[in-house]
Design goal:
The complex is a heterodimer of chains A (about 375) and B (about 170). Chain A has about 375 residues and is α+β, with helices and mostly antiparallel strands. Chain A is built from 5 helices and 15 strands. Chain A is elongated. Chain B contains 4 helices and 10 strands. The chains are: A alpha+beta (about 375), B alpha/beta (about 170).
């Protein structure tokens, strides 16, 4: 009995080490033969000269048993604040990532909606890893295979003691719940039960948290809850320079037992809030319509702009939307000719005229 | 054409050529309704596999599948046989005008979506039946039966204003 338990623990450790090292495990074959036609009066016979689109043509047979036994100690967590966290690997999958400019959708599919990680090397064994913060104290990476055994079993605890980088408390009447920023989980509490783990929380807009992250977390969590299957789930914050607010979150997910048939996506959720301009370097913010934040403890960022040392530059104006861009900003291509104007002069002068800087190029 | 479709709070019904979510009790509910009416359900291979894994691939379900079969061909098959098409991962944009009746299951959740039902399309239907129930993994779901609103195209003679031959009464 004790010997079996020791063997289980050893196999779990070996498995996690192997996964971290990228050694390929194959849970079971997800390549299915052609579906079988139902016999009987209701069947419809079809021709045989093309392949269906979308998820691979499934077989209508029961899945085989996994090759790898699930260890009793599945559900190991690393870097959850209770011990040393591993250092993040080189984040090669976000190097040179081309992300379309935000255009009104909370998220966008990246890489053809296929995760960057190796989907052939995933075992149906739960784990969760929250990697070390970087030198600026920013989250780097959270990675998991989520199963029912590590999903939250109770209500979320308080996370208010965590102040992620760039944290501000401004509130606006037109933001859902009023607070512009949420402590946004990389891996949701619903999925792995993590509460106040600083390696798992970034400063995210309410919009990103609800319209972007909640939507995909619901999708993954409900799938696991319904099927009992596992989902590989990796979240990578995307940072520009030394910014304290991330540009967005790259979320990759893949359902393990069914070979990605139900869950397969690679989504970038924009860390934006419609109607609000964010200074991603600091987290300062202001409403484009001039509404001042309700938090009286914070100096309105609009005023901060006016107090900043002025600079002179060349900008492209959208005279209709009262917005200004860098000349090389992609957004200038969308400005109608009759609303476009080039301006060279004081930046603060523009702000005083009511112009707001583009949230994308941050002029 | 008659379809069964599941939608989220954003009227989405599919993402990345996959269903948004699944629920065994919801499927049992769907099959129970159709069985009670003696109606058939037509599905593609993608739906068939998950119905089979739930043990619900019963006699009233016709799988329109096989090598060379387009994943939307179950729609035409359902229409031809006056059955119901279970839409999960198929773009039905080109079929909207042909849909006369729908069974809509609402997840009461927001999911990712890249295929949505247009709100203007839904406005063309009226609700016949509505019911709330608990699913397997969804605490609260809504079942809604909808039929297309048929508008009269011709003017009928109102007797009080005049007769067919134009004489006033």
């Amino acid at each position: 009995m004790i010997r079996n338990r020791i063997l289980s623990i050893i196999s779990a450790v070996v498995l996690i080490l192997a996964l971290t090292a990228g050694i390929a495990f194959r849970a079971f074959s997800s390549r299915d033969p052609e579906p079988e036609m139902l016999d009987g009066p209701g069947s419809v016979v079809m021709p045989e000269d093309s392949q269906p689109q979308g998820p691979e043509e499934p077989e209508i047979t029961e899945p085989q048993s996994p090759v790898i036994a699930i260890p009793e100690s599945a559900g190991a967590a690393e870097g959850n604040g209770s011990g040393p966290a591993p250092q993040a690997p080189e984040l090669t999958w976000i190097e040179g990532l081309e992300i379309p400019e935000y255009s009104g959708q909370a998220y966008v599919a990246i890489n053809g909606n296929v995760p960057f990680f190796d989907t052939e090397a995933i075992a149906p064994v739960s784990y969760e890893i929250y990697y070390q913060l970087d030198d600026l104290g920013r989250c780097t990476l959270a990675d998991a295979v989520v199963g029912q055994d590590i999903m939250a079993s109770g209500k979320r605890g308080s996370i208010s003691e965590i102040k992620p980088t760039g944290w501000h408390t401004e509130r606006y009447s037109f933001v859902d719940g009023e607070a512009l920023y949420n402590r946004c989980h990389l891996i949701a509490h619903y999925l792995t039960g993590e509460d106040a783990n600083p390696r798992n929380l970034v400063t995210g807009t309410r919009y990103m948290n609800t319209a972007g992250m909640n939507a995909l977390e619901n999708m993954v969590g409900d799938y696991i809850k319904e099927t009992g299957n596992h989902v590989r789930y990796r979240v990578t914050p995307v940072w520009t320079g030394d910014n304290l607010i991330c540009d967005g979150l790259l979320v990759e997910a893949w359902s393990v037992e069914d070979g990605g048939e139900d869950i397969c996506f690679c989504i970038y959720a924009y860390n934006v809030q419609p109607g609000i301009v964010i200074d991603y370097l600091t987290g300062d913010n202001y409403a484009t319509d001039g509404e001042k934040p309700k938090d009286q403890n914070s100096e309105p960022s609009y005023a901060k702009y006016l107090l900043e040392e002025d600079v002179t530059g060349t900008y492209v104006l959208n005279t209709k939307k009262k917005k200004f861009h860098r000349p090389d900003c992609q957004g200038v291509n969308d400005i109608a000719p009759e609303n476009r104007e080039e301006y060279t002069g004081s930046r603060n002068g523009l702000v005083e005229e009511g112009y707001v800087p583009c949230g994308g190029c941050n002029p | 054409m008659k379809i069964v479709i599941c939608i989220d709070e954003d009227l989405g019904y599919s993402f990345n050529k996959r269903r948004q979510s699944r629920d065994k009790k919801m499927r049992e509910h769907m099959l129970g309704v159709l069985r009670g009416e003696g109606a058939g359900l037509f599905v593609n291979a993608y739906s068939a596999k998950s119905l089979q894994s739930d043990g619900l691939l019963s006699g009233e379900v016709t799988v329109v599948s096989g090598p060379g079969v387009g994943e939307d061909e179950f729609l035409a098959a359902a229409e031809k046989e006056n059955g119901w098409a279970f839409v999960e991962n198929t773009d039905i944009t080109g079929y909207l005008d042909r849909i006369d009746e729908m069974i809509v299951y609402h997840w009461n959740r927001l999911y990712l979506s890249d295929l949505k039902l247009p709100a203007s399309f839904l406005k063309g239907f009226r609700t016949v039946t509505k019911e709330q129930f608990s699913g397997t993994s969804h605490d609260s779901m809504h079942y809604t039966r909808m039929v297309r609103i048929r508008r009269r195209t011709g003017r009928k003679n109102k007797g009080s204003r005049g007769t067919a031959n134009g004489e006033n009464r």
